[in-house]
Amino acid sequence: MNRIIAMMLVAAAFGFAPAAEAQEVPYWQAVSADLFASTDADEAETVKAGVSYDWRYRTPEDRQGVRLETARFAPATGPALEEQRLYYQFAQPGEDWSWNGMVGTNGESVLGSLGVHNDGRIRQEYFIERERLETPQGLDRALYSTFAGAALDLPVDERNTLTALVGVQDFDGDNLRTHLRARAIHVVRPDWGLSVQLRTRYFHNSVPAEADYFSPEWYVEVLPVVQIRRFHGGWRYQAAVSLGVQREAGSDWRAARHFEASVTSPPITRDWHVKAAVLHSSAPVASGQGYDYSQASLSLTRSF
């Protein structure tokens, strides 16, 4: 099943990516460098470093090129794995639908992501992504998963919005995970960029505990969130903090924590573009023994 989905992902990327239309603003070229690092309570670590060359570039949302990535996975137990990946990447805005994708290989399997969304009053997004399982068994047995789904933004009024996501995640083996997520957003002070949210997440595994990734029969999480988003000189600053509860089959309710922050440079064209983000969460990611996960990312793009 995962092989079929991987082939569909490649066909979609190369068959349905729309050709750029002639516009007054010219295309430039661009080079990029980025770094991603994550760790959890069991001291498992993932580091990905990439460089990109775009032969057609206007903005991060309008580009086409290639990406070379080195990924290193160091699980809590067992040997580390390092591999190189090569991707074709693109982003193409349109009048009705906008596309973005990054599809490639590590020499062993198809990897990457593909998404399409509109900007209508009810925003729709459809996506598919495929990645390696980073747990000890996942690395040793070369296991992968493919996640596909759809998301909707449903505006209620000027200050209230509901969002929903439905997805399925197909793991190598027999397990199929069903995802349901919902979010209610209320803007408290538009001039401050201050909002309060209620984020809920649920998933169900068809074959629990099939491997060593976190896979109980079901998992649920409820997070009240306070978020602030500010702009200064065109730069966007965003932070969100939450404290809620989580539970899976066979356990009691326990505290759930989440923090995220990011800074993004103005949507400039022929200049530097910078984005940095950090995240910390108590959501289980591996066997469920450690409930702390942190990640950080940084990307730099220069067009010419």
In words, what does this structure look like?
The protein has 304 residues and is mainly beta. It has one domain: Porin. 7% of the residues lie in helices and 64% in strands. The chain is built from two helices and 16 strands. A 16-stranded antiparallel beta barrel has the order 1-2-3-4-5-6-7-8-9-10-11-12-13-14-15-16. β5 (97-105) and β6 form a beta hairpin. The radius of gyration is 20 Å and the shape is globular. The N and C termini lie far apart (42 Å).
| Element string (H = helix, E = strand) | HEEEEEEEHEEEEEEEEE
The biggest beta sheet is recorded as: 16 strands, antiparallel, barrel
Q: What's the total helix number?
A: 2
Strand order in the largest sheet: 1-2-3-4-5-6-7-8-9-10-11-12-13-14-15-16
**Gyration radius from CA atoms, angstroms:** 20 Å
Average pLDDT confidence is: 91
Secondary structure tally: strands: 16
Binned strand content: over 45%
Keywords: Signal
Signal peptide: 1-22
